[in-house]
Amino acid sequence: MSSSSPIALINARLLDPASGETRGGVLVENGKIVSVGADVTQANVGTRAKSVDCGGDVVSPGLIDMCAFIGEPGASHRETIATASRAAAAGGVTTIVATPNTNPPVDGAAVVDYLMRRARDTAKVRILPCAALTKGLAGSEIAEIGLLKDAGAVAFSNGPASVVSSQVMRRAMTYARDFGAVIIHRSEDPELARAGVMNEGEFASRLGLPGIPREAEAIMLDRDMRLVALTLAGDAGGAHYHAQMVTTTLSLDIIAKAKAAGLPVSCATSINHLTLNETDVGDYRTFLKLSPPLRTEEERLALVEALASGLIDVVVSDHNPHDVEAKRVPFSEAEYGAIVLETMLPAGLRLVQSGHVSLSRLIAAMTLRPAEILGLPQGRLQKGAPADLIRFDPDEPFVVDPAHLHSRSKNTPFDEARMEGVVKLTMVAGVIV
Amino acid sequence: MSVLAKHIFSHRHLLGIEGLSRPDIEALLDLADEAVEVSRQVEKKRAVLRGRTLINLFFEPSTRTQSSFELAGKRLGADVMNMSVATSSVTKGETLIDTAATLNAMRPDLIVVRHHHSGAVQLLSRKVSCSVINAGDGSHEHPTQALLDALTIRRNKGRIDGLTIAICGDVLHSRVARSNMILLTQMGARVRVVGPSTLLPAGIERMGVEVHRSMESGIRDADIVMMLRLQRERMDGAFVPSLKEFARFYGLDEEKLKWAKPDALVMHPGPINRGVEIESAVADGPRSLINEQVEMGVAVRMAVLEALAQNLPNS
Questions:
Q1: Number of other residues whose CB lies within 10 A of the CB of residue A366
Q2: What's the DSSP call for residue A278?
Q3: A50-53 and A93-98 as β-strands: parallel, antiparallel, unpaired?
Q4: Dihedral, A270, A274, A276, A279 alpha carbons, nearest 10
C-alpha cells in the first residue's frame, strides 16, 4: 500500500483501546500515525496536512477481523478478495484474517504467496492469511508451519472443522511451540454435531430439526485445554491457542479455568452469537443457519457479559458468503454462514446502546486484542502505529439494504434491520479507502 | 358450507397445526363430519372444487396419504394430478423451488406436498400463488393426520377435552406426534408421550405434555393409546438396541393394554409394523380404530380442501 500526503483527522472523539478516550485529532504521514491527541488541531496542523473535520465522530483504530472467508482461491462466485475488501472497508474493517478453508486450502507457501499477491493487487484493506494447521485441512498430518509462517501466515487453523485426532492435535501444538505459532481452533465434536442443523432444544424440536448440543463444542474445547496444558504451559516463545468461536456458557467456564491456570489461551465469539439467538431462525430462515448454531437467549446474554468482562477477548465476523442457491433450499440442506463484514460494527454497537458493553471494550475486542494475539502493530491509536483508522458516528441510524452491501453474496442475517452506527471514513496505511 | 358459515376459516395454506385456533380446528372437524356422511353415500361426488386443479406433489413415497388426498379431491369435483418425485432424483433443494415454479405456472389451485425435510413445505408455499397443504414435512408436522386422529377420537369418545391420550414410540422423528401434541393439547386433552429417552426430542417437557419412559406409567388410565410407526432403519443400535428389545418394552400387546382404561381405544397412523410397535392381536382387535382412521382421513382432507377453497380467488 502506497504512502500518501499527510492527513489530519481533527475534532474527533479519539478512542484508543489501549489508553482510553480523549478529544482531539490524529496526524498521519507515510502510512503511520505521527501525532495523536488534543494538540492535533486545525490551528496546529495548519497547511502541513490535508485536514478532515470529524465533527465529533469517533476515530478509532480500524477493525481487525480474525475470521472471515474471502472466497479466493476457488470460490470466487461467493466472494472475491476485491468484494470482501470493499465490504470490509465499508464496515470499518481494515485487516481481515482470511480463513484457510479455500480450494485449494492454504496449506502450502505457494498459496500464501498467491493470496498475498492477489491482496496486493485487488484489496483495499489488509488481507492476512491464516494457514492450514494440517495438510489439506484433513486433520491427519501437520502442515508446514515453519515454511507457511515464513511466507506470511499469521496463524494456523483447521478451518471450520476441528482436528479430531487428539494425537495429531497434540503434535501440532508441540510443533507450533517451536515456531511461536498461533493456533486458532474451532472446537466441535463432529460425531456429536453431525446430525444437527441448529441448537438442540425445545425450539429445534418444535421445528422438527435435529439439534446440535452445546456439549459438542465444550467437549472438544475441554480436550484442547488439556492438550494446551500438556504442550504449551509455561512457554515464553509466543505460541498461543486461540479458540476461534465459543458460543456457550460451558465453553466460557472452560476458558475461564484455563486462563486462571495461566495457560496461553484466548477466545473469540462471533458478532452473530452476541446479537442473535436461536429464535431468530423463525420459520426456517436459512440466512440464520450458522455454525456453530445460534444459541438460546440465556447463552447470548452470558456471551455479552463475558465480552464485557474481557473473558471473551475477541469479536469476529465469521463472514461466510453464500450464493442464493445455497440458501434457497430447505433448512437442513442449506449451507451454514452469513455475510457480516459490513454490519459487524453497527451490530456490536447494539450492545453498547443497550448498556451491556462499553464502547471501548467493544472496540478493543475488534482491534487491540486481535492485534495483541497475532502480534500485529495495528489496533492502537498511538504514535508510530500503522495509520489504519476509522471514523464513525455510533448513533447515526440506517436500514440494512442487501442491494447496497458490497459483498458478492447477499446472505445477511440483518436483512432490512434498523441499525445505528455509520462508518464515514476508513483509512488503511494512511490512505483513505 | 353450513358449518363454515359459522366460523371464518381465514388461512390460505395449511402448513401445520401450529397457528390454527381451537375454533379453526373445530370448524374443520365439523365439516369433516359432514364429509363422512357424503362418503358413505352411493353418490359421493360434490361440486365444491369443480373446475379446480389439485396437484399431489410427493417427494417421499406414500400410499395412503396420497390416495386419501386424491380421493378427497375427486369427491369434491377437482381435477387431481399425482406427481411422485423419487427421493433419489431430488437431492438438491433448488429442484424444490424449480419444481414449485414449474407447477405454479400450470396454475393449480391447490398443491398437496410431502417432503423429507422439515420446513420444505413452508418454503415451497412462499414460491407459489395457490394454496398449499402440508402432507408431512420431515420431522415437523403432518396436520391432516392430526386432524383425522382428532376426528376419530371425537366421534368415538364424543369429546377430546379432558381425555388422557398417550402417544407412544418414536416421538423424536415423528411429525405425526408433533402435530398431535399441538392439536390435542389445544383441544384440552391431557397428552402424554411415552418412549425410550433416545427417541424423545430435547425440550419435550416444555411442550405442554407429560413425559413417560415406561409404558406402564405412560398408558396407565389412558383413554386413547396412540402408537407411532417405528422406522426400521433407525433401530439397529442407533437409537434402540434391537427391534426385539423395543417390542418387549414399548410394543403394545394385550398385556400392556390392560394398564389403560377398560374402554381405552388404540390408534396408529399406519402403516403398522406388526410385532414391533403393535401386536396383531391389538391392531386387529375390537379396540383398534386403525381402519376407521383411514376412513376419517378422506373426510378430513375433504374438509381441509373445502375450507381452503373458500379462500381461493374467484370463489
A1: 27
A2: G
A3: unpaired
A4: 110
Taking the alpha carbons at both ends of chain B, their separation in whole angstroms is: 13
Q: How many residues are recorded in chain B? A: 315
Q: What is the C-alpha R_g of chain B?
A: 19
pLDDT at B173: 94
Is A318 one of the annotated active-site residues of the chain? yes
The CA distance from A349 to A130, in Å, is 27
**In this predicted model, what pLDDT tens digit does every residue of A24-54 receive, in sequence order?**
999 999 999 999 999 999 999 988 999 999 9
Give the C-alpha separation, A32 to A26, whole Å.
10
Phi-psi region of B8 (alpha: psi -120 to 50; beta: other; left: phi over 0): beta
Residue of B15, B92, B118, B211 best to disrupt the A interface, most CBs of A under 10 A: B118
Cell numbers standing for residue A31: 502510512
Q: What whole-number distance in Å separates Cα of residue B207 and Cα of residue A179?
A: 53
Please name the helix (run of DSSP H) or strand (run of DSSP E) that holds residue B225, with its range, or none: strand B224-227
Q: How many CB atoms lie within 10 A of CB B216?
A: 11
Between CA B171 and CA B192 the distance in angstroms is: 11
Distance from CA of B51 to the nearest CA of A (A): 32
- Whole-model pTM: value is 0.93
- Is A283 in Cβ contact with B119 (below 8 Å)? yes
**Helix B143-157 to helix B22-39 angle, to the nearest 10 degrees?**
70
Could you write out the three-class secondary structure of B273-311?
CECCCECHHHHCCCCECHHHHHHHHHHHHHHHHHHHHCC
Question: Mean pLDDT over all residues of chain B?
Answer: 93
Q: To which residue does cell 442449506 refer?
A: A334
Residues of chain A in contact with residue B96, where contact means CB-CB under 8 angstroms, are 329-330
What is the rounded CA–CA span in Å between residue A222 and residue B249?
A: 37
Residues A240-259 as b or e (16 or more Cβ within 10 Å = b):
bbbbbbbbbbbbbebbeebb
Q: Are B268 and B276 in contact (CB under 8 A)?
A: no
Residue with cell 481494515: A94
Does the N-terminal peptide bond of residue A61 adopt cis geometry, omega within 30 degrees of 0? Answer: no
Contact assignment for B203 to A283 by CB distance below 8 Å: no
Q: What percent of chain B has pLDDT over 90?
A: 83
The rounded distance, in Å, linking the Cα atoms of B79 and B66 is: 14
Among B18, B119, B175, select the one facing A330 at the smallest CB separation.
B119
What is the C-alpha separation between B250 and A406, in angstroms, rounded? Answer: 57
- Is it true that the peptide bond before B201 is cis, omega within 30 degrees of 0? no
Q: pLDDT of A332-351, one tens digit each?
A: 999 999 999 999 999 999 99
Tell me which amino acid residue B201 is. Answer: P
Contacts of B193 in chain A (CB under 8 A): none
Start-to-end CA span in chain A (Å): 11
Parts of chain A with a pLDDT under 50: 1-2
CA A96 to chain centre: 7
A361-365, B269-273, B295-299: range with lowest mean pLDDT: B269-273
Please name the amino acid found at residue A163.
V
The ipTM is 0.90
